[in-house]
Amino acid sequence: MATIRLGFRRQNFCLFKRSFLLLKLIAVVFAVLLFCEFLIYYLVIFRCNWPELKTPAYDGEQETLEPVLKAMFLADTHLLGEVRGHWLDKLRREWQMERAFQTALWLLQPEVVFILGDIFDEGKWSSSQAWADDVERFQKMFRHPHHVQLKVVAGNHDIGFHYQMSTYRIKRFEKVFNPERLFSWKGINFVMVNSVALEGDGCNICSEAEAELIEISHKLNCSREQEHHSSQCGDGQPLPRSAPVLLQHFPLYRRSDANCTGEDAAPPEERGTPFKERYDVLSREASQKLLWWLQPRLVLSGHTHSACEVLHGAGISELSVPSFSWRNRNNPSFIMGSMTPTEYALSKCYLPFENTVLITYCGAAGFLVVLILVHFGFLDLPFLFGCQLLRKFKTV
């Protein structure tokens, strides 16, 4: 009878040990998943702060506080489609972008978000059903409160390069995203350009795009020259007297990224590669037209997937915004801008590095393997080995 009771006790003890091991494994897996898929975004983005403007605004002799607009700029999300999109790639990278965006909205609370093109990866050839599916995923990932405005410009992957671009694809894109080219808020003018249509070959779409920009240029000139009541400017609502911020997908013309620096610039071996006009950057002619027509105080662009700051003409700064997706960069980021009608300040907010998350998962997997081997006696922990040595010395 005592032998049977002892057997039951041993059996119960073994079951308890196995259950305890299972609980430990579940706890470790849950903790790692919680950290890598949720907490790491809060820990990293929490360190980002809105930049402070250097100089206050003055009205005559009195200092006045101009309202500051908090704007967030990101680019090249490249949501994968049905042709080239592997399900695991979609799951991993799109979850990363969704968590990063939602965390940034909650922690930083921007008032407006601009996405500088290439929202989709296969918009240039996707079918109507595939396009609808991609749009639905985008709207879920980049959902936002009603008080936050989301503005989007078209990229070559959304509507195709010039030789692929069509009125149908442009209308399809503009049906989802507001087609407005001029957006003003808190006294700040933003001009959103379809840079794919600035080919300069006189095609119908290109001619219409240039006509829109010339009309916007006329409105901006009227606001600068205070000619609102003249016959040339008409009686419409005047624009704020503020040099615009130019937003587009293709960068303005530059020879290469040779002068670009920073940890999120292009790799050193690629920086000296010459850019191809109308493919990597806008043509010289189109760039000069934009600067002449709009006279912007700041230009933000995407397309290259890497960061770069360039000065054009009379000190007009252009900032190329890196890709927001792990698919294109190990260290994605976005730009935070504090803006008034006369001043602006920009700072960069990095997202979690992909290799940090992968290393964390690999380390956790290794720890679980060690835990299992120790439990079943295939491996001794160092402190257990030390205890055994002490016992041997005591018996000697």
UniProtKB/TrEMBL annotation:
Per the UniProt record, the source organism is Hipposideros armiger (Great Himalayan leaf-nosed bat)
Q: Where is the Calcineurin-like phosphoesterase domain?
A: 70-306
What gene name is listed for this protein? MPPE1
Lipid bilayer topology: Multi-pass membrane protein
Q: Which GO terms describe its cellular component?
A: endomembrane system; endoplasmic reticulum-Golgi intermediate compartment membrane
| GO BP annotations listed | endoplasmic reticulum to Golgi vesicle-mediated transport; GPI anchor biosynthetic process
Q: Which InterPro entries match?
A: Calcineurin-like_PHP, Metallo-depent_PP-like, MPP_MPPE1, PGAP5/Cdc1/Ted1
This protein is called what?
Metallophosphoesterase 1
Gene3D superfamilies for this protein: 3.60.21.10
**What's the cofactor?**
Mn(2+)
Q: What does this protein do?
A: Metallophosphoesterase that catalyzes the removal of a side-chain ethanolamine-phosphate (EtNP) from the second mannose of the GPI-anchor protein intermediate. Participates in the glycan remodeling steps of GPI-anchor maturation to allow an efficient transport of GPI-anchor proteins from the endoplasmic reticulum to the Golgi.
Which UniProt key words apply to this protein? ER-Golgi transport, GPI-anchor biosynthesis, Hydrolase, Manganese, Membrane, Metal-binding, Transmembrane, Transmembrane helix, Transport
Query: Can the keyword Membrane be found in this entry's annotation?
Result: yes
Family, similarity comment: Belongs to the metallophosphoesterase superfamily. MPPE1 family.
> Could you tell me where this protein is found in the cell?
Endoplasmic reticulum-Golgi intermediate compartment membrane
Q: Which residues cross the membrane?
A: 21-44, 358-385
State whether it acts alone or in a complex, and with which partners, per the record: Interacts with GPI-anchor proteins (via the GPI portion). Interacts with TMED10.
Task: State the Gene Ontology terms under molecular function.
Answer: metal ion binding; phosphoric diester hydrolase activity
